[in-house]
């Protein structure tokens, strides 16, 4: 039943409508006002005349009474006004404000009186008469002659004090009587004022009598004043607190609740079926003289609104008439079948959550369901096929059970406003075609398992993350995309057994009927969200990345992989059908997907206002357990070991995982997952000598820790003598790296890591304790080194903080080694978030999802509320200078080299031929990459090799193959193949006199000046390549220029210094000097065409910007003559690398460039001398249209590029900028083309026309724009 709330603010009762002039409260207040006025005058005059300190204090008190009477009269009159549209609750709080004012006056008046009396006593007992008189005069207490400052009061003052007592006592009783009738706090405060006056009058009387009848008792008068002031302070403080409580809406007292409850019962007696009605709660607040009452009545679930209305009217009439002061009665109806909550505050909308855990409950699959489902550690297994899976029905029962346990703890489920959660990653649930109907019609009287199992599911089991039955599918995934590296680039991970895509593919092949009967496929996280939502929920953007199906760069399902999983070969329909089964992925990790299902409202008391936010996987949720910053790392030291970081840079690799961040677009989660974590450490621990030296007893972990701390890092005490030791302890087949079970031990030189060799005989088992922890930490460090940055210019790159979670985080020895190896600028911390960080992260996700402001990120919202105190504990200092560096020198270099070599062999022998054959032979053409669709077999095969080499082979190796020595031999062989013994075009090397730049001249006739010069810079990422490698390309271009009508064309190819031999601005200086040399040869810059491909084109763009920029900074270090160089006649750019690093750079299935390596080369070129975003190092960042206009060659630009290349978006962006600048620019994007194809095709294409196609288009464009200067 939907909860109904009906309010009433318009009922008024006869006892609230007296006119102010006749109101008893107003009348008695006026009497008190006149009395206080008369007594204040009388006491003041009497105290002065009769020399009574007590009487003067009492006179001051009467003046405060007079002011309080005026305030009371005003607030009582105002509070009686009826409610208005602007003040729908009436004006009762005005009386509360008046009470606060009256009590505050009482309190501060008492404090002043106390101070005055204390000064008099001090003067009497501690000062001589003259000094005392001076003090009292300074304190303004000398209202009459100083000559009798210490004389006692006159006896005549006594009759005045006695009269005051009588009048004030009568006023107290009269005012309190009205206050009780009206339940008025301000009248009660005023009555207390009168009682205090009465008591102070008695004290004053006693002080006067004592001072007159006791010898030397003048001190009694200020003592009386002091006692009076204390009584005043006490009364003032009590009334001030009462007024503050009333203003803060303190609940009505038990006496009023009892009276209201009694009248509700009487009111229900006249209602039909009153026995079916249950009074659940009475609450309310006091507003001045008024009570605002809230009632909660439980009625049968089937009652209508009209039935409830009759009950409401009866109750309101009875309570309003019989309980004095009730101004409003609001009745809330709830289903009687709904269990009563401990604190019915579910209508109160909470403010910001302070992230305190209020309640928790747990279901242990084995303990609670082990016997019923036959599970062990939550799963069933089929060892023969490597299958590991869980019964979906068990999860349904578990959800009901955990909510039952929360309810049994009196958890206020009705107050929950949002639900999110985390679930084990990679598992999948298969819904039937009846699922949606069953989910939307759940009945609260029956359990989930009774209503959904088996009808809602096409398959009763969900594959578990431990499953390893999908090796064949993994192989197909990697060969379909081309390699593990390419698959990682697309999906964030290489193929893994546990990932959902391979599991779906295997189940489709094994159980085709089940797959056909499947309507929707959910991850475990979206499955659980679906139960709460009452319909199939979309997958979360982060959890979907654990499927090997989500194309992270393009932010969509991968069409080739969907085709593979769905069976391919059956047309597009099968992939479309699978996409429909998977559904759309929810891009926003926050917000609401809808209200909670009525099943949970009725069965467990959740509010209909409770919203369901997207659920995510357990690993993504773990990084939400605290406001993790980029650069921080979480290490989960459980049975397995997981390493997590967040980063804004997408750098995928087969050895680790990348996921979209669960809450923050543009951020990614980096994850390493190791099977051999705590289990492997326990294996080493168990073979160590026992602590007591015997066969049992002692603390095994204490022994382990002692061995760790007693072994030096890498077991090296003397680097000149000892070899560094490294152990690999894989008691289970490992995920990272993908390797069989086994234990291996190695040693190498401690100083530089050279001489790595396996140690067959092993070493003492005590050494293994430290070495296993080191090896696990080193693996994390090695594979995360591309993500960590320098947080201090004087420190090496490392995490900012390292947070440890899980059982191993409690071990101080493990924490110490983690700090030694991983570092941590701010230290190593134990994260204490209870037993389940991922569950807490899911709860935090719900807070952010439903409480975030516009544009407010998860880290911003949670960061403001999350408190480190009590949540984290520093367990190690982290980075230690020398220690951290020792691990890097000894180990990391060997690991990188061996890993690279192993991957290269695997790729060449297995992945390259398999991927090549699969795409060429088994895929339909429209499913092949755009380049493969147009490429010959030879072109395709070579580009696959180049693609791998660019991403994995170091540039120093590439430099060897493209160097002068190798390139000239290669050129000679190719000329010989075509019948040439000598070059058909004249060329010679050039070195300027200062040897500040070098190059190669090609010219038709060196005896004459050229009529056109192509000034060319080669590509190669600034790190490899040479003009000698380009000689065949340049000679072919020369031949085409001569055929186009140029009489004596020439080409000058710059041989610039490569990185890392030098970085920016060396190459730019050389480019400018080379340009000046070319102009000196031809004599006119209009006859020069500047050109280059890739990085060479970057240098030419920088050259143009430099020429146009006459600032001293732009030409720093250059000769002045360079600033006066004229613009060239034209610029021809082949696949220009316009922007060194850009978010627009995206890996494609066709191109051989790799974004990660491309950016690395770019940053190496920029070096530390200039920002990588400066236009003079990264010209694509120049958005100054006037600058480009001044930099433009006289005949404009011609740009050739491939539509499929990584650089294409930035190239097209530059073309648009040039067009806006009014520059003449023509671009030619080759469909299916890849990077620098006019150059590469000359070596790879099979026909003469194809080899020269790109060059011909370029030459034709030049001949149309730049004419011959003629022979001179």
Automatic annotation (TrEMBL):
InterPro entries, per the entry: AB_hydrolase_3 (IPR013094), AB_hydrolase_fold (IPR029058), ATPase_NBD (IPR043129), Cation_efflux (IPR002524), Cation_efflux_CTD_sf (IPR036837), Cation_efflux_TM (IPR058533), Cation_efflux_TMD_sf (IPR027469), D-XK_euk (IPR042024)
Coiled coil: none
Function: Highly specific D-xylulose kinase which participates in the catabolism of xylose. Xylose is a major component of hemicelluloses such as xylan. Most fungi utilize D-xylose via three enzymatic reactions, xylose reductase (XR), xylitol dehydrogenase (XDH), and xylulokinase, to form xylulose 5-phosphate, which enters pentose phosphate pathway.
Membrane topology: Multi-pass membrane protein
Protein name: xylulokinase
Annotated Cation efflux protein transmembrane domain residues: 31-247
EC number: 2.7.1.17
UniProt similarity note: Belongs to the cation diffusion facilitator (CDF) transporter (TC 2.A.4) family. SLC30A subfamily. Belongs to the FGGY kinase family.
Residues of the Alpha/beta hydrolase fold-3 domain: 1015-1237
GO biological process entries: D-xylose metabolic process; inorganic ion homeostasis; intracellular monoatomic cation homeostasis; xylulose metabolic process
Record key words, sorted: Carbohydrate metabolism, Ion transport, Kinase, Membrane, Transferase, Transmembrane, Transmembrane helix, Transport, Xylose metabolism
The keyword Zinc-finger is assigned to this record: no
UniProt subcellular location: Membrane
A GO MF label: monoatomic cation transmembrane transporter activity
Residue segments, region Disordered: 1-22
Organism whose genome encodes this protein: Diplogelasinospora grovesii
UniProt cross-references to Pfam families, sorted A to Z: Abhydrolase_3, Cation_efflux, FGGY_C, FGGY_N
